[in-house]
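Supplementary Methods. Inverse-folding protocol.

Structures were first reduced to a discrete structure-token string of length 127. This string, shown here, constituted the complete conditioning input.
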């Protein structure tokens, strides 16, 4: 998700709508740099006292203190929160760029399908 939406989106959306860059570059950078500690916390949580041990879904009964008393689950959940915040910030940036930075001759109905798909995806992510 971060590579496909964040990576390709940051590269292709300004090209497709005729914008010089994304609308909010500092939020864009902050969104990217939140992913680095998120990955570190997720991998670090896997190394503490036998790992997450909750399955790939982080099933709530298995992630309670009764079944997993180590801080590894806390690291995993915090990692997901950081990745979620990164996605929300990236979505705000994409929607702002798509709505406000189009060229003067570019209307919403003339935007490429990739931009529409990214806009709808980011709107759903915000909702």
């Amino acid at each position: 998700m971060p590579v496909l939406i964040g990576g390709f989106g940051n590269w292709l959306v300004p090209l497709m709508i005729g914008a010089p860059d994304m609308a909010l570059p500092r939020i864009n950078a902050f969104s990217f740099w939140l992913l680095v500690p998120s990955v570190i916390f997720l991998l670090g949580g896997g190394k503490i006292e036998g790992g997450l041990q909750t399955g790939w879904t982080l099933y709530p009964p298995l992630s309670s203190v009764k079944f997993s008393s180590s801080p590894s689950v806390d690291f995993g959940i915090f990692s997901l929160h950081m990745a979620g915040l990164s996605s929300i910030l990236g979505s705000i940036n994409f929607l702002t760029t798509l709505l406000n930075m189009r060229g003067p001759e570019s209307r919403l109905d003339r935007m490429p399908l990739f931009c529409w798909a990214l806009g709808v995806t980011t709107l759903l992510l915000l909702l």
